[in-house]
Amino acid sequence: MPDYIKFVDSVKRKTGIDLAAYKEAQMKRRLTSLYEKKGFKNFVDFFQALDKDRDLLNEFLDRMTINVSEFYRNAKRWDVLEQKIFPKLLADNRRLKIWSAACSTGEEPYTTAMVLSNHQTLSQISVLATDLDENAIGRAKVGIYPERSLAEVPANMKSKYFEKQAAFYKVDGAIKKTVTFKKHNLLKDTYDKNFDLIICRNVMIYFTEEAKDLIYQNFSNSLKPGGILFVGSTEQIFNPGKYGFETEDTFFYRKK
Ligand SMILES: C[S@@+](CC[C@H](N)C(=O)[O-])C[C@H]1O[C@@H](n2cnc3c(N)ncnc32)[C@H](O)[C@@H]1O
Questions:
Q1: Which of 105, 149, 96 lies closest to 125, judged by CA?
Q2: Which CATH code fits 75-255?
Q3: Does 185 contact ligand 1 (Cβ within 6 A)?
Q4: Is the CB of 126 under 6 A from ligand 1?
Q5: Do 99 and 131 form a contact (C-beta atoms < 8 A)?
Q6: What is the pLDDT along the chain (256 residues), one digit of tens a residue?
Q7: What is d(CA 165, CA 72) in angstroms, rounded to the nearest whole number?
Q8: Sequence ranges of the chain with CATH classification 3.40.50.150
Q9: Is 102 near ligand 1, meaning CB less than 6 Å away?
């Protein structure tokens, strides 16, 4: 069995993570550069080592997940969410059920709550935020970020919802209270139902076509009719009808 395939198999047995669902060339390149840096010669040696070494396993998880995020990422899209999508959703229902999937270190679900706070009080807002990576979730719960993560935050929101602490910014406690973090693997775990809004951005790019297909279908099943899927700015769905979606705006899809 080729080296990488064996590695994928062993990782799946050990962690439940299915590397086969991620684009192979990209994933292989990232992991090869990590094991070479650590002085291993091939994937078999690398797995034997990470099987015994918790820190190395964590480094592997860190490398494979790519946690890059920022507040108001692609700010113009968040304007569309605020000015077009939320007013429509709120016209039908004042208690929106919202899921930020693959939320990384929390910038996305916190941004969602900030944007929605322009329409509702924080006590009316609740956002479920999930990721595969427990380390990222841990950092999200702490809610302290370097200045570069806030580059796109509007000035009024920055002064309202962040507290400067030396070189860092802390998210306001009232915003934190609106978000519930949980571990969830999009490839394996069951999806909750009846969402008004699902936000899943900048993770689909890493998946194979088969994995994307499965996840879009799952999202569609998890949305209420009229509910919205908000995707990343390089992640247009080319055949939305296949999943029962209509295009609502660029990067926003409505479940029929
Ligand atoms: C680049 S970040 C995107 C963060 C945020 N959504 C954004 O757009 O800024 C990708 C995230 O996807 C997560 N991820 C990768 N595979 C996943 C899976 N199978 N299930 C859930 N999350 C996953 C990673 O842990 C990482 O935090």
A1: 96
A2: 3.40.50.150
A3: yes
A4: no
A5: no
A6: 689 999 999 999 999 999 999 999 999 999 999 999 999 999 999 999 999 999 999 999 999 999 999 999 999 999 999 999 999 999 989 999 999 999 999 999 999 999 999 999 999 999 999 999 999 999 999 999 999 999 999 999 999 999 999 999 999 999 999 999 999 999 999 999 999 999 999 999 999 999 999 999 999 999 999 999 999 999 999 999 999 999 999 999 999 9
A7: 21
A8: 75-255
A9: yes
